[in-house]
Design goal:
This protein is mainly alpha-helical. Helix content is 75%, strand content 3%. It is globular. It is found in: Cell membrane.
């Protein structure tokens, strides 16, 4: 007989968004299209940066990592979500649930740190442009990236281990779209106050600390821009940061609203919708924002499309 069979859960049931079949089919089509756009857009951004030597700069090196994180984050959640839309039994094995939580939590933390790193890069570019290439050298960029990936992964590993050591008793129904930390912790049949404190501390370290670093960077950036005499110079400096600032507002804004809640608890539906926004919409918007608002990226697209058009014309001739 298996020991502690009252506290061991072999699988979880994700309740998802809806139990109505027609609604689930509609959501499947919608989220599948959004996921395909997310994967295609981010992969194209990565390939474009790799193929165009003009984009081999620290800013686009960081953007490559951000796109990789976005597509990986979406992949850790959306395929499972799509499969459950068409499944009658919406189960996820214990180990798969733990793996999903580990990757989604880790990649989320890495993204926050990357945005802080990119803010520092924009700070140097605007506030100390003459020494930019000296300060943002290849060695520093690589160390910043490694630190972001390692820090996010270690934080996620610790939280995943702590969360899945909790006894779930007979509780296996997760009222969420994925194995999200707070949703899983709520299943525990013991006092979880220490886990909630750990989640809050983690949120402060990996969310609020980078956010305040971003805020500090942009205070310095705005102060420098306001000192520029010419309107054209100010606009050019602002355009240097516009795409990144847009992503900062989206990512940090949604995450802070979701995880740094006031004492009044949000509804379960609100938690699901905010998670969907962060897991699907934000990664999909990233390549669009950098393509539409960045002259260098648009120029690289035009150059690549010109080469493709020329190659196609030669083949046709």
């Amino acid at each position: 007989m298996e020991p502690n069979n009252q506290t061991w859960v072999h699988e979880f049931i994700l309740l998802g968004l809806s139990r109505d079949w027609d609604t689930q089919v509609s959501l499947f089509v919608l989220f599948l299209l959004m996921y395909l756009v997310t994967v295609l857009g981010n992969v194209l951004i990565i390939l474009l940066i790799r193929l165009d030597s003009r984009l081999h700069t620290p800013m686009y090196f960081f953007l490559t990592n951000l796109s990789l994180v976005d597509v990986s984050y979406a992949t850790s959640i959306v395929p499972q979500l799509l499969a459950h839309f068409l499944a009658a039994h919406k189960a996820i094995p214990f180990l798969s649930c733990a793996a999903q939580l580990f990757f989604s939590l880790g990649l989320g933390g890495i993204e926050f740190l990357l945005l802080a790193v990119m803010a520092y890069d924009r700070y140097v570019a605007v506030c100390d442009p003459l020494r930019y290439s000296v300060i943002m050298h290849a060695g520093l960029c690589l160390r910043l990236i490694i630190t972001s990936w390692v820090s996010g992964s270690i934080n996620s590993l610790v939280h995943t281990a702590i969360t899945f050591q909790l006894p779930m008793c007979t509780n296996k129904y997760i009222d969420h779209i994925a194995c999200e930390t707070l949703a899983v912790v709520r299943l525990a049949c013991v006092d979880t106050s220490s886990n909630k404190v750990a989640i809050m501390v983690s949120s402060i370290v990996l969310l609020m600390t980078p956010f305040f670093l971003v805020l500090l960077s942009y205070i310095q950036i705005i102060s420098t821009i306001l000192k520029i005499q010419s309107t054209e110079g100010r606009w050019k400096a602002f355009q240097t940061c516009a795409s990144h600032l847009t992503m900062v507002i989206l990512c940090y804004g949604m995450a802070i609203f979701t995880y740094i809640q006031p004492h009044s608890n949000p509804s379960v539906l609100q938690e699901k919708l905010m998670s969907l926004f962060y897991a699907i919409l934000t990664p999909m918007l990233n390549p669009m924002i950098y393509s539409l608002r960045n002259k260098e990226v648009k120029g690289a697209w035009q150059k690549l499309l010109g080469k493709i058009s020329g190659f196609t014309s030669k083949l046709a001739a």
